[in-house]
Amino acid sequence: MGLIQIGNDIIARGEVTTADILALRQAIFGDVVVTREEAEVLFLIDEGTERRVAEWRVLFLEVLTDWLIRQQEPLGYITDQQADWLIARIEADKRARDGTEIELVVRVLEQADSAPASLAAFGLTLVTRSVVENDGVIRAVEVERMRRLMFAPAGPGRLAISREEAEVLFDLNDATRGAANDPSWTDFFMRAVANAVTAAAGWAPPGREEALRRERWLADPEDGIAEAFAREHGPLPSTKLGLHAWVGQAFAWAMRTPSADGLYAERVEANARAASTAAPVDALEARWLVDRIGRDGDFDDNERALIAFLRELAPHTDEALQPLIDRLAA
Fold first, then answer.
1. What domain range includes position 289?
2. Euclidean distance between CA atoms 278 and 55, whole angstroms
3. pLDDT digits (tens, 9 = 90+) for 182-198
């Protein structure tokens, strides 16, 4: 039975069983490759059923993550077309499902090396919207999901908190003021916003085209890394003893060749630059904080905790922030 027929039968019953999971796995992974059409069938099943065994969530996330991250070259890079499709697919019925769709977006941003900015922004919107549109209370599981998203390698700030993310956190804090939020929200809020004004994102992966170029060079039998070594040390030996010596020479050559020396140079340089620029709160950051914290004319405990934390974390800040520190951290 084909995947489409399996999906139609499941939707007609309105239930996903353990037997269905096995049938779906066999149909999808029988040829190893996951296709967009197969991804579409899983979305239809997720939307068209109300009763699902726990294994369904595992399968949904596994298949979709595999298709988005590992089914195209270079591995780890989500394309613009994939991001556009995923956003449109989740938004199609105006309902983002917590355990599957929202979790999928967070997970792929965690596992991908690079993703379009549109997908990172969409993930941030989904996570915060799910809090406000439910009961307006921030739970521990939602705090952890925000933490995962905002510090995801392919997330909005790339392992750091961006100004845009900090703005969203302030908006969410305002929207849930007075609610019985989990205590972990205060800790996350103050640390995340402080990160936005005292830290830098550092290294970012090369663009998709550059990553493809590097992979093609590594794999090129005529002008790649193997050929470059063979020109200097000869072809791969046929005997085991000769092979051991050849491999040893290869490692030694790779360590001293300029291209090997520079393999991580850009990452090291970017991280060093980030460390040097992750300084005390400067004038622009201070003015933004003063405007943002006082925007609604009220100060809550979370904002007071933020200012107290900043005073401890970055005692040397721009003078524009000092009156606010004196007022809220007194």
1. 279-328
2. 44
3. 999 999 999 999 988 88
Has residue 290 been placed in a domain? yes
Q: Cα torsion at 227, 261, 202, 311 (round to 10°)?
A: 160
User: Are 159 and 235 found together in one domain?
Assistant: no
pLDDT digits (tens, 9 = 90+) for 195-247: 888 865 444 555 656 656 655 555 555 655 556 656 665 665 555 556 566 66
Q: Is 16 found in the same domain as 145?
A: yes
Q: Does one domain contain both 118 and 234?
A: no
Indicate the pTM of the whole model.
0.74
What are the residues whose beta carbons fall under 8 Å from the beta carbon of 185, sequence distance 6 or more?
138, 143, 176, 302
Same domain for 67 and 146, yes or no, is: yes
Residue pLDDT, tens place only, 246-280: 666 666 655 555 554 454 455 545 544 554 444 56
Task: Please give the C-alpha separations between residue 258 and each of 226, 240, 253, 254, 278, in angstroms, as whole numbers.
Answer: 15, 29, 10, 8, 30
Q: Where are the beta strands (DSSP E) in the chain?
A: 15-16, 51-52
Do 317 and 325 form a contact (C-beta atoms < 8 A)?
yes
